[in-house]
Specification:
Chain A: It comes from Pseudodonghicola xiamenensis. The complex is a heterodimer of chains A (about 220) and B (about 220). With about 220 residues, chain A is mainly α. Chain A has 9 helices and no strands. The chains are: A mainly alpha (about 220), B mainly alpha (about 220).
């Protein structure tokens, strides 16, 4: 069976819809992983030890296991607990949590690297410890790690293909549905690869803009 | 936590963990070969080689590893490439991780001080000799740690072959979750084994790193 790319355009609509879902999943999970990362960093650094220690254990467990395994845990585990979520939500939670743990590691290091004088100055000006953390220390820490967080978000985009395995309809699953009808795997996976590549380029451009806007001119 | 169940199924998980180790070793070896070749191409004098190296890195880092794996395994037969799932997994993931290793190796090589190459040339070494005897040994020291990060990611990356039904840890966990409805126990069991593999590998890499580190 040779190659015949002429079948691809008739599935253009389905693939385009897949692209939109991939972008939506990426954006929602990226936001979840960003804010989750900040929250996790604060818990890991300042939480009471009864929360901090088990939390660090789970972070270690999540950083040492594959995303695919975690997706199976979340998808089937939630069902086991009697929580029946749509696959989309399970996929977003899985991706978001997985990358929140990685972002949290970056943000923790950055929080510890913010000059101590910043906290002292804020406290002198009458801010409480929590206020100083939220308004002074964390914004500076997060700004410092925007570029590596951006790299994590690029990885998140590519890993979003994995949620097709638990039945979330996005670009990879769209390609698979088209393959199911046409028996032309090479053509449709190649088309999906091109589309992912284009989304990736777009995302890199957006991240570069964010980086330029948030970095101090030094 | 159903301990009886864990005790009953763990031998299957151990066997699957060996497959994961095998996949990790083979993909990392192939990745190192691809990475070294592409790093050499990217640093070459010839524009065409530089272009090929850059295109390889950009393509592989721009598409999901899963899509490349599917393209190779399901699409391969259409262009005359017949591979078993295991072979497709090793080749697909090895070529993929190679692109990330290319950048690690290239980064280490170009961060060796320029004066080193100049001094070597002044002392009468040829360009190849100066690279082989002066630049590379120094670059090797610099690349062990970041390659360790690539390898750590790749051990977890081998889980992708579960999607083409290679019986390794994640696939085994998935099968047992499906048949026992005990997702937490199965995750815990597979997770511990992944952590053991990753921790041991990490220790080996830091041992190697300490051995070659300059005082």
């Amino acid at each position: 069976m040779g190659l015949d790319f002429s079948v691809v355009p008739s599935y253009a609509d389905a693939l385009f819809l897949g692209v939109l879902w991939t972008i939506a999943i990426t954006i929602v999970s990226a936001l979840l992983s960003f804010f989750g990362g900040i929250l996790f960093a604060v818990i890991a650094l300042y939480g009471p030890w009864m929360i901090r220690l088990p939390f660090r254990f789970f972070a270690w467990l999540f950083m040492g296991t594959p995303l695919l395994l975690q997706l199976f845990l979340i998808y089937f585990g939630l069902v086991e607990l009697g929580i029946d979520l749509p696959a989309f939500v399970a996929g977003v939670i899985g991706l978001g949590l997985h990358f929140a743990v990685y972002n949290s590691e970056l943000i923790q290091t950055a929080i510890l690297a913010v000059d101590k004088g910043q906290m002292e100055a804020a406290r002198t000006l009458g801010l409480s410890r929590t206020q100083a953390l939220i308004r002074v220390v964390i914004p500076q820490a997060v700004r410092d790690v925007i570029p590596p967080i951006g790299n994590n978000m690029i990885a998140l985009l590519k890993d979003s293909a994995l949620v097709s395995v638990i039945g979330v309809s996005e670009l990879t699953l769209s390609a698979q549905l088209a393959i199911g009808r046409t028996y032309r795997p090479f053509e449709f996976y190649a088309a999906a690869a091109v589309l992912y590549y284009i989304i990736n380029l777009g995302m890199e451009a957006v991240l570069r803009r964010i980086e330029r806007r948030t970095q101090l001119s030094r | 936590m159903d301990i009886d169940l864990i005790l009953r199924v763990y031998p299957h998980f151990l066997k699957a963990a060996l497959v994961t180790v095998e996949l990790s070793v083979l993909t990392v070896l192939l990745g190192l070969v691809c990475g070294a070749a592409a790093a050499a191409a990217r640093l070459s004098r010839f524009a065409i080689l530089r272009f090929i190296g850059a295109a390889y890195v950009s393509l592989m880092r721009g598409i999901p590893a899963l899509i490349f794996l599917f393209l190779l395994y399901f699409g391969g037969p259409q262009i005359g490439i017949q591979l078993t799932a295991f072979q497709a997994g090793v080749i697909g993931l090895g070529i993929n991780i190679g692109a990330y290793m290319t950048e690690t190796m290239r980064g280490a090589i170009i961060s060796v001080d320029h004066g080193q190459a100049e001094a070597a040339r002044t002392l009468g070494l040829s360009q190849f000799q100066s690279f082989r005897k002066v630049i590379l040994p120094q670059a090797m020291r610099l690349m062990i740690r970041p390659l360790g990060v690539n390898i750590n990611a790749q051990i977890k990356g081998t889980a992708l072959v579960a999607a083409i039904s290679v019986v390794e840890l994640t696939y085994t966990a998935q099968r047992y979750i499906g048949s026992t409805y005990k997702p937490f126990e199965m995750f815990f069991l597979a997770g511990i084994l992944y952590l053991i593999i990753i921790t041991v590998t990490g220790k080996m890499i830091s041992f190697l790193d300490r051995r070659v580190r300059l005082p």
